[in-house]
Amino acid sequence: MSDAATVVAPSATTLPSTAQKLTAELLGTFILVFGVIGAAIFAAGFADGEGGLNVGFLGVALALGLSVVVGAYAFGPVSGGHFNPAVTFGLAVAGRFAWREVGGYLAAQLVGGILASTLLLGVLSTGPLFDIVAFQGASTGYDELSPGGFGLLSMLLVETIATAVFLFVILGVTSVRAAAGFAPLAIGLTLTMLALVAIPVSNASFNPARSIATAIYGGGEALLQVWASIVAPILGAIIAGAVYKLVFERPAALTT
């Protein structure tokens, strides 16, 4: 199995450099965070829903899925299109990504996410209704940060399970058996589906970079709870990576 990133297989005849891959991860994570958090802050509850102008949970879920589709098609051929520390860990556990590259990818993802949330804060701060609490409302968590008032156990379960499902899909649609060219669509649609389930429970992260980028401007409670939005997705991704490698990528002679 190649140790190259394989969320979206590189199509160029020459392999990208490390700098190119890290830049692609930074930009892809920027697009993801800018898209989903921007939709959550500016459009989800716009005008309190009067006249049907706000996008609600469905709009935020679509923004998440679409941002991943766009980022994967644009930068997947360069970096593999992780845009998520949990995905990077899961792929490494599954043997699809080199452990020596994990640190650089995590750093690039965090920088891209924080840059996106910082620029969104700049947009918000110059608007007519500036209120930092908007970032608290977009932060992932439990109890007061959960849109539905769900507790810690519910939040940990939904983030772990959803991220595991997400990784299973990624590993499946990027395997040698999968149809070429459709991986970004499958991955984006999976995220949309999972977000529709998880938004009322946890605000649907599945991505430590997205959670950290939002929490740093979400106030004390968001910072206190961000650990759960880091641990649960990474745990789910590691479980999925290990199970997929054991069950689906064993030599045929061992599985018959």
UniProtKB/TrEMBL annotation:
Protein name (database record): Aquaporin Z
Transmembrane segments: 29-47, 54-76, 82-99, 106-130, 150-173, 185-206, 226-247
Domain of life: Bacteria
PROSITE patterns assigned to the protein according to its UniProt record, in alphabetical order: MIP
Pfam families noted in UniProt: MIP
Family classification: Belongs to the MIP/aquaporin (TC 1.A.8) family.
Alphabetical UniProt keywords: Membrane, Transmembrane, Transmembrane helix, Transport
Coiled coil residues, start to end: none
Membrane topology, from the record: Multi-pass membrane protein
Subcellular location(s) per record: Membrane
